[in-house]
Each structure stands twice: as structure tokens, then as C-alpha cells.
Amino acid sequence: MNIVIIGAGGVGGYFGGKLALAGYPTTFIARGKTLQEIKQNGLQVNSILGDFHVYPRVTDNYEAVKEADLILLCVKSWQIDAIAREINPLLPSKATVLPLQNGADNADRLSSILPPSCVIAGLCRIVSKIESPGVINHFGYEPEIVFGEVNNKPSLRLELIKVAFDKAGFKNRSSNTIQRDIWLKFLFIASISAMGALTRSVLGVMREDKFLRKKLIETASEIVSVGSNLGIDINEKDIESCFEIIDRINYDTTMSLQRDMMEGKPSELDNFNGYIVRQGDILGIETPVNDFIYYSLRPMEEKVRSERF
């Protein structure tokens, strides 16, 4: 199985690195200092489960996808459309594209640009970041990938992907309820990320402040309302389970969206709370808390994007 990893950050670096370590032909598509560092010194992953160092092929040329059997898309959700347009004319009919970024509609967006038969849906769970170009720091959570066909049916390619992931040695699961799985993670991440950016507070502060905790729960309730109206199997009981997880997480935890905004980088705001706001408008569902969070942070997001792009 020839594997292409698009994005060599905390997600792509870890999972792609494990696949390369297992002996699979693995090509990273990266750029800038990360590209040069991996070319010269390989990819170093410092992990709470054990450090490792690999020397995969790395390039900045999307032509690499011409030989791919499996493409792991490990960029931010706001980058999906542009990358899909780049790889669309190069994509072999045999290839499978698996998106692993946060967000509720990644597979749908990919399928609107790529041949839908090439796309499966997925998510990952990992707490990791780029320590420096070519160096990944995995510092929390047992890494896991959950993946499935968009129609929730079993398939041979899911079996083959699971064999590869098992050989790579990370936790994984082939799901026949992948939309629910994606929305459960989305419920968790979208309920706390932008609120963290808005309050400039770690998770422990937000969950222990009575007013902020109430707003987090209201944010989650609006997400569930939108999701269930879109036909997703998600309900208010899932909020309780979500907050049981939130209450167990390290007090000083911050989320990637929050860190991006606080560091003046483009974020996934539009794909998180912005998505809920837009879908609420379409469905005629009121989302006042998500509205406030999104529209309060949007000027900052627009300023960063106008300066960078």
C-alpha cells in the first residue's frame, strides 16, 4: 500500500511517521522549513508512548498522489477545498482519501470536488503539536483513527486500511456509524475551542466557572440541535457524556483553534462555530451562543487572513 500524507504537523507527523516506521512506502507532502528539515534529518516524533525517528520520502509536489493507494489529509479544515482542487486532476481511480481534521462536513466538502467514490470519512484523536520543523511532540491521549464509508457499509478497502493501521501499531476502528462518531468529536471540540479563544482561558477555568460552564453547555446544546436536524444520531444525552470527558481532561488544556487565534494564525473558527451558525440559519434554528462566539471572534479571524492572504 502506497501512502501519501498531506500535512506534516501534529496529526500527519505522528500517524504518517508510524506508518513509515512500519515499513509502508510513505510520502509526506510538506513545504518550507518542514520540507527541508525532513529531507535533511528525517522526521523525529517525541511521544509519551515512545520516541521514534524515520526517514520517509518528502516533497512539495502534489504529483506524488499519482501513485497513492491511501491519502491521509492532515491539514486544517479551512485548507481542504484548495488541496482537493490541487489533487483532483492527479488522483488515481484506485486511491482512497481519508480526511482526519476537525470539523463536521469534511467528507462532504471533499466529495463535492473529488470523485465521491474516492472519499471515506474519518477523524482522529491525539494531542500533539509541531515542536520545531520536522519534530513532532505527542504529549497527550492515546492516538486513534476512526474511519468508515460515507454510506456506513463495510468494504474491502476499510479492511485493508485497518490492516495497515494495525501494523503501524496505533489504535484504530472501522466504523459503521461514522457520521455519529464525527459529530461526537465535533460536539466536544466545537463546544470548548472558540470559547477558549474568546476568554483566553485554559479549559479548567472555563469548566469550573459557573457562568462559563453554563455557556459551554448551551453551545453544545445548539450543536446537538443542528446536528439532529441534519439527520445525525446525536442527542442531549451525548452532552452529558461530552462533559464527563471535559471534566477529566488536564486543567491547563488549550485547544488548537484557541492556540492558533492567540498566536495570530488562521484558525478553524469558520468550520466550527461558523458552521453551526450557517446551518442554524438554513434550518431556521436559533443559535444565540454560537452566534455571539462566532461574530465576536470573526473580526480577529478576518484581520489575520487579510494580512496573510
From TrEMBL:
Gene3D superfamilies: N-(1-d-carboxylethyl)-l-norvaline Dehydrogenase, domain 2 (1.10.1040.10), NAD(P)-binding Rossmann-like Domain (3.40.50.720)
Stretches that traverse the bilayer: 182-206
Alphabetized UniProt keyword annotations: Membrane, NADP, Oxidoreductase, Pantothenate biosynthesis, Transmembrane, Transmembrane helix
Pfam family, one: ApbA_C
Gene Ontology MF terms: 2-dehydropantoate 2-reductase activity
Protein's pathway: Cofactor biosynthesis; (R)-pantothenate biosynthesis; (R)-pantoate from 3-methyl-2-oxobutanoate: step 2/2
EC numbers for this chain: 1.1.1.169
Domain Ketopantoate reductase N-terminal: 3-151
Similarity-based family: Belongs to the ketopantoate reductase family.
Cited function: Catalyzes the NADPH-dependent reduction of ketopantoate into pantoic acid.
PANTHER family: 2-DEHYDROPANTOATE 2-REDUCTASE (PTHR21708:SF26), PROBABLE 2-DEHYDROPANTOATE 2-REDUCTASE (PTHR21708)
Protein name, UniProt field: 2-dehydropantoate 2-reductase
Protein source organism: Lutimonas vermicola
